[in-house]
Amino acid sequence: MSKNLISIQDFSKEELLHILEVAKEFEANREQNFLAGKVIACLFFEPSTRTRLSFEAAVNRLGARVIGFPDSRNTSVAKGETLEDTIHIVSNYVDMIVMRHPMAGAADIAAKISPVPVVNAGDGANQHPTQTLLDMYSILKTQGRLENLKINMVGDLKYGRTIHSLVEAMYYFNPTFVFTAPEELQIPKKYLEFLDSKGVKYEFAEKIEDHLNDCDILYMTRVQQERFPDIDEYNKVKDFYKLTADMLGNVKPGMKIMHPLPRIGEIALDVDETPYAYYFQQAGNGMYVRMAIISYLLGYR
Ligand code: CP
Fold this sequence. Notes:
Low-confidence stretches: none
Number of helices: 9
Largest sheet: 5 strands, parallel
Helix content: 25-40%
Bound molecules: phosphoric acid mono(formamide)ester
Order of helices and strands: HEHEHEHEHEHEHEEHEH
CATH topology of the largest domain: Rossmann fold
Radius of gyration: 19 Å
């Protein structure tokens, strides 16, 4: 049976650390061609810039070839073909499937059908495990360690799949989490129950300023309009947070601001010029981490 990456919990602590190690090697030498002859499908049923293009770049840098689609409206899904049938068909053609889908659980359905490895590139508001690995890589690069960090997560913690995966991975490293969100967007109870079961410390806040000056990582997120069943509910919370450069006068010197991107209005442009902004480099790290994930799942590294 092939190994998949559907939830971040599919990887042990050792596997997570292994991926980070291999990503570091690939960052030092990104021209790798050991997957020549392999074909990888990137099936994106939901919009993406970073995840799709960094996966496609990763496939190319590993010497493999990529097929797929950035928009399922040009596929037989538009004629009513089911996800299951799409996976049955595509898995005949390729050595791995990378898939993003708006439905939580879609990647799990695909993995149960596919004889080749399936990588979840984001399923609804559920999980985004490859983002988590690049987030961990970014944390390690900027902080020099993963252990004992205070991570302040801000914004849409309810629908933010990157939040859900990251808390489930960082628990290994004795973090203290701050969950900064309006009540409507607080992190779902099941993740708090998970952290409680692991003895992880966390606290809640409503304003960014509450834990701006004592955190190591400020993890900002976008309020995800596409997940709200009611647009009025979105309009109530969409402008809740805006981080500006003048708020950063007393932060820890090594503090880094991360964001899975895209940003809408939650980080002002003047923050980009500060030494704390790390979100563009974070996105750049994604290609090396995705190279490592592909190599590992295909049994090469
Ligand atoms: N971080 C992330 O998933 O970005 P994209 O939606 O552009 O892939």
